[in-house]
Amino acid sequence: MTEDENIIKKKDKDLDDICDECKNKDESVSQNLILTGFKICKSCRISKTIFPI
Description:
The chain is mainly α and 53 residues long. The protein has one domain (3-50). The protein has three helices and no strands. The chain has helices at residues 3-14, 28-36, 42-50. The relative contact order is 0.15.
């Protein structure tokens, strides 16, 4: 495998729309990844904002 193929596979894994917190698939995961740098869905983001512990 070349380096380009490894980079593409890594990017595909990052953009799989699966939340790191609740493990649900949601469209907002990739949006939050771009905005904040974290792979979390909208509901987990709101709960982390309200209860940051």
